[in-house]
Amino acid sequence: MTEHEYDVVIVGAGGAGMRAALESSQRAKTAVLTKLYPTRSHTGAAQGGMAAALANVEEDNVEWHVFDTIKGGDYLVDQDAAQILCEEAVQAVLDLEKMGLPFNRTTAGKIDQRRFGGHTRDHGKAAVRRACYAADRTGHMILQTLYQQCIKQDVEFFNEFYVLDLILNDDPQSAEGKDVAVAGVIAYELSTGQIHTFRAKSVIFATGGAGKVFKTTSNAHTLTGDGMALALRRGIPLEDMEFFQFHPTGLAGLGILLSEAARGEGGILRNSEGERFMERYAPTIKDLAPRDVVARAMANEVREGRGCGPNKDYVLLDLTHLEPAHIDEKLPDITEFARTYLGVEPYTEPVPVFPTAHYAMGGVPTTNNAEVLRNNHDTIKGLYAAGEVACVSVHGSNRLGTNSLLDINVFGRRAGIAAAEYALTTEGYDLPADASALVSDQVEKLRATVGGGGTERVADIRRELQATMDRNVQVFRTSESLAEAHTLVGELQARFKNIAIHDRGARFNTDLLEAVELGFLLDLAEVVILGAEHRKESRGGHYREDFPTRDDKNFMKHTMAYKTKDGIRLDTKPVVVTKYQPMERKY
Amino acid sequence: MTATAEAPTKAGEVPSFDVTLRIQRMDPDGTPDHPAGEEYWEEFTLTMHGTDRVLDALHKIKWDVDGSLAFRRSCAHGVCGSDAMRINAKNRLACKTLLKDLNPKRPITIEPIKGLPVEKDLIVDMEPFFASYREIMPFLMTSGPTPERERLQSPEERARFDDTTKCIMCAACTTSCPVFWTDGQYFGPQAIVGAHRFIFDSRDEGEWDRLEILNDKAGVWKCRTAFNCTEACPRGIEVTKAISEVKKALNTGAV
Lengths: 587, 255
Hints:
The structure holds two protein chains of two kinds. Chain A is of the alpha/beta class. Helix content of chain A is 34%, strand content 21%. Chain A has a domain at 244-358: Alpha-Beta Complex (Flavocytochrome C3, Chain A, domain 1). In chain A, the strands form five sheets. In chain A, strands 1, 2, 6, 7, 8, 9, 16 and 17 form an eight-stranded mixed sheet that branches. Chain A has a four-stranded antiparallel sheet with strand order 11-14-13-12. In chain A, strand 1, helix 1 and strand 2 form a beta-alpha-beta unit. The radius of gyration of chain A is 23 Å and the shape is globular. The relative contact order of chain A is 0.17. Chain B has two domains: 16-124, Beta-grasp domain (Ubiquitin-like (UB roll)); 127-141 and 154-252, Orthogonal Bundle (Fumarate Reductase Iron-sulfur Protein, Chain B, domain 2). Helices cover 29% and strands 15% of the residues of chain B. A five-stranded mixed sheet of chain B has the order 2-1-5-3-4, covered by helices on one side. Chain B has a two-stranded antiparallel ribbon with strand order 6-7. In chain B, helix 2 (127-135) packs parallel to helix 6 (189-199), helix 6 (189-199) packs antiparallel against helix 7 (207-214) and helix 6 crosses helix 9 (239-252). Chains A and B meet through helix 4, helix 5, helix 11 and helix 16 of A and helix 1, helix 2 and helix 3 of B.
């Protein structure tokens, strides 16, 4: 075992983690622990753009962006947080440009902007060009630029370190008002199998999402909700986990993301009759309605028999009316995906698409300064979260496209500053002598299953979990589907106790880590399902066929899920409303 | 054309076939049959489908046959750069290479990328590769006061270095280079691509700092224009062209 000591430890090196590191490392001794090399992080897979009311190509302003974000989130957004997100957006984009990010340019040499779903002029009148972009590689450019700046600033990375435990000085479910603080994290080094303890005055979780709960997903294999699950296991609540975004245009059967920018640039969704069906669902902005609206419309077309293909199980994204040169300039990567993976030529053929699990709106609850909440009022001193792992909540029940690349920059920066400034004011807390016991025990127990009596395979349980979630907890949900998922996940959790892995080795034992990650997914699936069962209304990304309308009287509040010794306990947290009272959501 | 129900349905038609993967293995901890560090070949025959990629086959082995098989992967659609490997003697991304495009009637050979130390099976030590990248100062360098708004750049100026911004640092180019295999000092093509991205960026003022580094004995003059790098790049970057543009800048003194 090796012991380390830092002022600030950042867990995760995607956009949020590296943006935090750039701030924190200027102010305090900082380490970034990441289970992937930083440039492998899934920020790099984001495509379409980053929202900011720069007004470089047409009239726009912060207030319209705030309104769109709140309405897009179906009024579950904390409005003070949305105000911060949109106000700081302009500077966040300019900061990236000054770091060297190669945005596409207007003929005048300014950052170019394009249309995206749910972003409108003057409170819904028409689509507005708000997304700052670099072809369909905006996330790639952000990840590369932040990594380059980290090299410039000599940020200290611990690559391929898996953080497997979070150490606090006290139980976060202690009475309100009591001081609970972070002490550090425990990590497993992939290349050696060694356990490392990191004492830290501040810890920032920037571990990303949990899309691998589902089978059909745009998410990387590594997006297993590690930070969310670690927090939950240590008694920290998770907020709004029932809200998962299904991105409308995943490559059919594969789930690989095709950016909404395809529709921003003029692409049209069609059903088996060749009809532009979004005209019926969102007469004003049609194909550029928010993702929840479009995904539901697509699933409904398929359900009513207007799907395409031999099994009538997808719809078509039509780009054939666009000039090939325009496609090459603005959408080069996604059209290559269609060619590579489906053998479809987007110049001349429409692309088969269907919704794919994309983004967790919920996560670890935080304040607007990225401080982690342990209940509705108290923060955990020294613990921060930013990016998809966190729930501020700026996305409410449905995130607008291009608001997540914005989120990681705005709240990553805030987390880095807050964590470093706090670390400079405290001595921190010592790790207990047995701080790594839980992780060592977990690792040794898994190793002992090699050739032991376990009869269950990790891959089988994972496949069943993902199939169950796709079947029961996707775009359409009912009390029956959720009850079935609830039962099945419970059975899978029981079977998980009886797994056997293959690899006993110390070095690069990815077999062992896949088992650990499956444990995270099982814990999180349960919280998603319980939240969805409890929320007997339809709002944003959560649609209950048995309760098809929004119910502000009973459910305009955040869900808070606590893991206790008696199982998951659900509670609520009020939504912060400043100036926009809930209205009917039409596009 | 108009989208109709008769539109292509390739996603729905997935024939299955048997394929054999011949994989180079190495376990640093040793196995009952192979001492620690020994490299050996192991064959797996699998039933796969028409839309499956090499990565799907590797997962099938890992998940259903032998969990100890070690390889890196993450995004699984060619943008994160984790799973570059040598497939039928060519560097490719496992997640971007369809089995049906490899003639599955013959065994498919899979080895780790060459020129970096093998750590376990298909995993190599990437640190020397990233160290070369760090050496070329891969960040925007400017002087003078920071402007309030964005620095202006015309679409033409932006297009000048577009190709090299696509790099995902998978190391397919560098580890396909015969000079890199034999000369441990050479930065390799990726570091030159990384430098090119800034040298030809109109906003950057550090071009001569970088060109001086690349003019070094470990630098750009080591390139023998074998074109392996250009063929290997899964992002379609014209690597050899980028290297020749750097050479030209050094020869002419003009960027």
